[in-house]
Amino acid sequence: MDIITVSYYALVCGALGLAGPRLGRPLIRLGIGGIVGILAATLLPTVRLGLGL
């Protein structure tokens, strides 16, 4: 993985980690984490294009 990919996922996971305890029960947090992961993976190409990479 390149530095852009690692940084992007670190930001997404860090933000989710901060919000984690406020999101409710473990199963709900797992579902939200999965949705955020899918969205992050889907949006990464757009972010790369926006950064001109």
Tag the structure with descriptive keywords.
2 helices, transmembrane, elongated, transmembrane helix, membrane, 79% helix, 53 residues, mainly alpha
Question: What is this structure's SSE topology?
Answer:
Elements lengths: L2 H17 L6 H25 L3
Helix pairs in contact: 1-2
The parts where pLDDT drops under 50 for at least 5 residues are none
Major β-sheet annotation:
none
Shape: elongated
The whole-number mean of residue pLDDT values reads 82
SSE ordering: HH
Strand content: under 5%
* Structural class by helix and strand composition: mainly alpha
Distance from first to last alpha carbon:
14 Å
Radius of gyration: 12 Å
Specify the number of helices: 2
* Assembly status: single chain
Summarize the amount of helix as a percent range. Answer: over 70%
Let me know the number of strands.
Answer: 0
Structure, explained:
The chain crosses the membrane at residues 6-23, 30-51. By secondary structure, this protein is mainly alpha-helical. The chain is 79% helix and 0% strand. The chain starts with a helix and ends with a helix.
In short:
The chain crosses the membrane at residues 6-23, 30-51. The protein has 53 residues and is mostly helical.
